[in-house]
Amino acid sequence: MRQIQVINSIAAAGHKISVYGFEKCGEDYFHSAVNRCCCVSAAIEMAEIVILPLPYTTNGVSINAPFCDEELTPESMIATVQKGKRLFVGKVDERIKTLCDAHEIKCVDYFDREELAVRNSIPTAEGAIAVAMKETPFTLHGSNCLCLGFGRIGKVLAKMLHGIGANVSVAARKSSDISWISAYGYTPLNIGKLDGEIGKYDVIFNTVPHQVLDFNLLSKLKKDVLVIDLASKPGGVAFDTARQLGIKVNWELSLPGRVAPATAGKIISDTILNIIDDNGYCI
């Protein structure tokens, strides 16, 4: 649904757009200017830019296309793209880079843009709070909440939690972040020195993309705590250990596309159009 919003927003901006992989969707899903093609080669044939979803794959094998009648692989799709064209991909990896280099295609990672990352933090934070509200028997107002990390998501999440009356603590590593956390009125913690503090929290949100909650810290948590991991793979929690200890952990990946697909799609389309404008691409 997020990708459909991307398509419609780009079409509404006046660009010619052809699509493939949405056979299970009715006509009313798409802007009237969208050209729906019967095969991937027809969709790509006249395109200056080919756009893959975010993430481009969820299983490591095929392109992320749940509305498609067939399984599309990056190899078969890229083989139809003409040399010199541009492939816009969400989360570029070595597999895509190698394929693009082999076919002399220019690869652009729209997920790497700062405006997308910043704007994506808003539906991520809202989604995380929605999960916490659903999964706990108490209000977040008045509860003790800990945010691990003070990056884009951590900043927005801490602000939202503080706004609804939670007692917000934020753990970070850099001294400059510790100062900002204090300035915003949250309780600052050193992320490397949580042993004596971590047992008092009702909800813990992790935004750090490497393991923070190991056996040592998990064993000190309240038994009824809720841990919400927002970090990309491999995550920030020792999941097997948490399971053995009976700690409830929700690993919430790709929240923007799940909780706010219209907004998430608009963020991606705006980013793609910004890249086109910034680089003077003709489409």
Quick structural overview:
The protein is of the alpha/beta class and 283 residues long.
Describe the structure.
The protein is of the alpha/beta class and 283 residues long. The chain folds into two domains: 2-112 and 258-279, NAD(P)-binding Rossmann-like Domain (Rossmann fold, 3-Layer(aba) Sandwich); 120-252, Rossmann fold (3-Layer(aba) Sandwich). The protein has eleven helices and eleven strands. The protein has a six-stranded parallel β-sheet with strand order 8-7-6-9-10-11, sandwiched between helices. Strands 3-4-5 form a three-stranded parallel β-sheet, covered by helices on one side. It has a two-stranded parallel ribbon with strand order 1-2. The protein is elongated. The mean pLDDT is 94.
Keywords:
283 residues, alpha/beta, Rossmann fold, 2 domains, six-stranded parallel beta sheet, three-stranded parallel beta sheet, 11 strands, 15% strand, elongated
Topology:
Layout: H1 2-12, E1 18-19, E2 35-36, H2 40-44, E3 49-51, H3 74-78, E4 86-89, H4 94-102, E5 106-109, H5 114-135, E6 144-148, H6 152-163, E7 167-172, H7 175-183, E8 187-190, E9 203-206, H8 215-218, E10 226-229, H9 239-245, E11 248-251, H10 255-259, H11 261-279
Parallel strand pairs: 1-2, 3-4, 4-5, 6-7, 6-9, 7-8, 9-10, 10-11
